[in-house]
Amino acid sequence: MQELKLEIITYPHPTLRHASKPIVRVDAALRKIVSEMFDLMYAARGVGLAANQVDLPLRLFVVNLTAEKGTGEELVFINPVVSRPKSSEEAEEGCLSIPEVYGPVARPKQIHINAYSLDGQEMTATLDGLLARVIQHESDHLDGVLFPDKMNDSAQATIADDLTALESQFAMRQQASEIPTNDAIAQRLQDWETKYC
């Protein structure tokens, strides 16, 4: 496959709706991708970034709650499974792939996470607070779910115009060949799945 230049894709790019497949191999190229994902996340002042958001169909995401390189803890979650949700709380969320759009999302307050690290170590933990919310948000990405999907109808209505504007921008960029056709995107995703899934 050609040399990959990662960038954060924006709504309504088809890869954001693609359900990612579990990763069965980790190689040097994938480790480099993870490192680049952290760099992109920091540049955008984000606290989490899923592989879908850089146009890759792989079940992996990165998190650092400080949003700053060199501080906090860099966490890599491969093939994450979220379970045992408890209680619920609402908080405002945003997304690097839906820039400048925010809205209230109700999520379980506490979750259990099971995943693998980049070096193949199994990780299990019961979490709450911001880390639990970020993990749920990024796990949703891997299933092709975006945070506006989780908002109630009245909250969705308040961001409808913003989403329509992003859809128009995307369509214009695709028509101008700045973004590949949906068929070309689908073929590329399949190539990546063949390599890693």
Write a structural description.
This protein has 197 residues and is α+β, with helices and mostly antiparallel strands. The protein has one domain: Peptide deformylase (Peptide Deformylase, Alpha-Beta Complex). It contains four helices and seven strands, in the order αβββββββααα. The longest helix is centred in the C-terminal third of the chain and has 23 residues.
Strand order of the largest sheet: 1-2-3-6-7
CA distance, first residue to last residue: 15 Å
Oligomeric grouping of the chains: single chain
* Average residue-wise pLDDT: 95
Number of domains: 1
Helices and strands, in N-to-C order? Answer: HEEEEEEEHHH
- Got a strand count? 7
Reported CATH architecture: Alpha-Beta Complex
Class by helix and strand content?
Answer: alpha+beta
The CATH superfamily label reads: Peptide deformylase
Structure annotation, total helices: 4
What is the strand content?
25-35%
For the report, how would you describe the main beta sheet?
5 strands, antiparallel
Element layout with pairings:
Elements: H1 28-43, E1 48-50, E2 60-63, E3 75-86, E4 89-95, E5 98-107, E6 110-116, E7 122-128, H2 129-142, H3 153-175, H4 182-196
Antiparallel strand pairs: 1-2, 2-3, 3-6, 4-5, 6-7
List the defining traits of the structure above.
alpha+beta; 5-stranded antiparallel sheet; two-stranded antiparallel sheet
